[in-house]
Amino acid sequence: VKALGRNDFQFFDPEMQSSAQERLEIEKGLHQALDNNEFELWFQPQLCSDDTIFAAEALIRWKHPQKGIILPGSFINIAEDSGQIVEIGNWVLKQALEQLASWKQRGLPKTFKKLAINISPVQFMQVNFVEDFLKLLNEVKLPGQMIELEITENMLLNNFEIASNKMKILKRRGISFAIDDFGTGYSSLKYLRHLPLDVLKIDRSFVTGLRSSSDQAAIVEVIIATADRLDLMIIAEGVETLNERSALMELGCHCFQGYLFSKPLPAEVFFSKLTASSAV
Ligand code: C2E
Ligand code: CA
Ligand code: CA
Ligand code: CA
After folding, report:
1. Which candidate, 224, 241, 122, 242, places its Cα nearest to that of 183?
2. In angstroms, how far is the first alpha carbon of the chain from the final one?
3. N or C of the chain: less Cβ packing under 10 Å?
């Protein structure tokens, strides 16, 4: 028997062992992945109702030499538990900023405002996070205004004091903050209003199958009212159908990210699409 939490016990069975084995394999693989340059950033457009791409979210992919492309859902958790997320997250930041700087040099459409980058709580809580990030920003000579950091609500509330101090420092340099997966955690207005947030992302679970008249719509309505109270811009995640889009618009959400518009794309494909879609 293995003790998990306070009074939460679980028995080892062969299946669990194999999954522990798998985790170990991924952990080992992640080590080499950084050294062998197996990570890649892909980019998913964010659009408003006028159909211009105003931003993009950077999403990591692992090009495994044997297994092909591995999605972050299969390794980010493991990397967080093992601590490898710090190194991986630093790679993501550097790669994202360098990519953006190079696009900026080649010419970005005026309508394209920023790149959003996912930050793991473990990474954000590192003592040097702010210092290292600002150093990187200086090196690539990008204005902070072009960067948005996506963080989850639980992270913010579990480390409220430290998180909000870090956010305030970055905020002064123009960096904006999006609260990711909103509605899946336990955030309350009371706390959120003390944080320098800019964007609220409605989690995909509330968007899938949304019609303007349903219980689900009532939830989205509350989320949108919360965003309005906090003066936050709203982006809906995981928009796959025209019905979902029109329901969202009826409820007051006008910016979207999802397969309806585009899946995440490799850097060059994204850049072509971006520059083709609007005048530079
Ligand atoms: P997330 O931040 O919520 O990112 C959105 C996820 O939804 C992405 O999955 C994206 O491909 C997917 N998605 C977007 N539109 C649709 C849609 O219309 N339908 C469906 N079914 N899915 C859609 P992805 O790329 O597999 O990433 C999964 C999660 O892994 C992310 O969720 C994020 O939490 C984490 N992640 C990804 N990249 C990074 C990274 O660079 N650093 C960290 N710390 N976490 C990352
Ligand atoms: Ca995200
Ligand atoms: Ca999300
Ligand atoms: Ca999500």
Report:
1. 224
2. 62
3. N
Q: Do 150 and 119 form a contact (C-beta atoms < 8 A)? A: yes
Q: Which of 64, 59, 68 is nearest to 41 (CA)?
A: 59
User: Across-strand partners of 149?
Assistant: 117, 177
Question: pTM here?
Answer: 0.93
Q: What is the DSSP letter of 252?
A: T
Cα 64 to averaged position of ligand 2 atoms, centre (Å): 22
Assigned token pair, 15: 């299946």
What are the residues whose beta carbon lies below 5 Å from ligand 2 (ion)?
A: 118, 150, 180
For residue 48, the SS3 value is strand
**pLDDT, tens only, 211-245:** 888 899 999 999 999 999 999 999 999 999 999 99
45 in ligand 1 pocket by Cβ < 6 Å?
A: no
pLDDT value at 252 more than 90: yes
CB 185, CB 179: distance < 8 Å: no
Query: Which two structure tokens, joined as six digits, stand for 132?
Result: 């290292």
Among 237, 256, 259, 265, the mutation site with the greatest number of ligand 1 atoms within 8 A of its Cβ is 237
Place of tokens 């906090």: 230
User: Is the beta carbon of 180 within 6 A of some atom in ligand 1?
Assistant: yes
Sign of CA dihedral 15, 18, 24, 30: negative
Amino acid at 253: C
